[in-house]
């Protein structure tokens, strides 16, 4: 008589979800590794509060910053919502309206009721989670400008800062604009650094700017390096394409040349030996 079968356990839905998420992010990382080394666009992510109103001083400052960045040829990336996000997208739109270089304004929105997409966006990508949105910001942007904001802005800053700290992201400027950020850095130096919770050099991974001119200058200098590296990559790619289409003639290795030379010398010696032998046998007959 067969023993009764044990009842099947119900599937662990939470575990299935966890495994699926891990595999999904593995897939995303593999896809990102296919990105070409040559990047076509320089994009600046602008982070700041959604609560700032159009009449506020910070709103005008961010609008001016985005306008000047657009004139430099930078795309603008924001959270796509109101406040300082809208100010950045508005500044980019106004600069293009004056005939500046062709650029785009991106909004990575989040599905919360009080943040609707602003009217100055060229492209909108709607996210349902903050972590996918943060990942998208990092993937798209070559520089980050952080203006006054609350918990959401601090989250975005800390995400980018940590990626620089652990080396997951390199050589991308993070510029803190506004007096409120100096207090954060002072607190980290007083509380974190003495207890060795951070390394002193970790605090140098961000730039604290005292003026908008200084902040724009940091991004402009980085963009020049980006453009120069991109031009070098394009030249190298073109050289490689030309070399593939018209390869240079094959040159025999030195060993092969030496072997051929020695073979020709041996043949000449044998010919000379053969000629001398025939003359020696012919002379007695002549006498």
DSSP helical segment count: 8
E-strand count: 7
Runs in which pLDDT lies below 50 for 5 or more consecutive residues are 276-287
Strand content: 5-15%
Class from secondary-structure proportions: alpha/beta
What general form does the structure show? Answer: globular
**Mean pLDDT across all amino acids:** 84
Radius of gyration (Å): 34 Å
CATH class of one domain: Alpha Beta
Query: What do we call the CATH topology of one domain?
Result: Rossmann fold
CATH architecture of one domain: 3-Layer(aba) Sandwich
Q: What sequence of helices (H) and strands (E) makes up the elements?
A: HEHEHEEHEHEHEHH
Helicity range: 40-55%
Distance between the termini: 122 Å
Largest sheet, in brief, is: 7 strands, parallel
Q: Strands of the largest sheet, in order across it? A: 4-3-2-1-5-6-7
Oligomer: single chain
Describe this structure in words.
The protein is an alpha/beta fold and 287 residues long. The chain has helices at 13-32, 57-71, 84-97, 130-140, 151-165, 180-192, 212-245, 254-286, and strands at 43-47, 75-78, 105-110, 123-127, 143-146, 174-177, 207-209. The chain has a seven-stranded parallel beta sheet with strand order 4-3-2-1-5-6-7, with helices on both faces. Strand 6, helix 6 (180-192) and strand 7 (207-209) form a beta-alpha-beta unit.
């Amino acid at each position: 008589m067969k023993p009764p079968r044990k009842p099947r356990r119900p599937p662990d839905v939470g575990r299935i979800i966890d495994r699926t998420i891990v595999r999904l992010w593995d897939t995303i990382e593999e896809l990102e590794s296919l990105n070409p080394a040559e990047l076509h666009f320089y994009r600046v992510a602008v982070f700041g509060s959604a609560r700032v109103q159009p009449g506020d001083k910070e709103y005008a400052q961010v609008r001016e910053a985005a306008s000047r960045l657009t004139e430099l040829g930078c795309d603008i990336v924001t959270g796509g919502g109101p406040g300082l996000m809208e100010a950045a997208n508005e500044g980019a739109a106004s600069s293009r309206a004056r005939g500046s270089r062709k650029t785009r304004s991106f909004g990575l929105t989040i599905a919360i009721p009080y943040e609707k997409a602003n009217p100055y966006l060229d492209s909108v990508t709607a996210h349902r989670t903050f972590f996918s949105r943060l990942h998208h910001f990092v993937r798209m942007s070559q520089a980050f400008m952080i203006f006054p904001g609350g918990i959401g802005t601090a989250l975005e800053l800390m995400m980018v800062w940590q990626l620089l700290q652990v080396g997951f992201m390199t050589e991308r400027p993070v510029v803190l604009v506004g007096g409120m950020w100096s207090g954060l850095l002072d607190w980290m130096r007083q509380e974190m650094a003495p207890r060795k919770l951070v390394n002193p050099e970790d605090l140098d991974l961000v730039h604290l700017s005292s003026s908008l001119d200084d902040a724009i200058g940091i991004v402009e200098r980085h963009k020049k390096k980006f453009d120069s590296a991109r031009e070098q990559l394009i030249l190298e790619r073109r050289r490689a394409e030309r070399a593939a289409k018209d390869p240079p003639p094959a040159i025999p290795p030195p060993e092969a040349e030496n072997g051929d030379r020695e073979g020709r010398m041996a043949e000449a010696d044998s010919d000379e030996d053969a000629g001398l032998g025939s003359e020696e046998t012919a002379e007695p007959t002549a006498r």
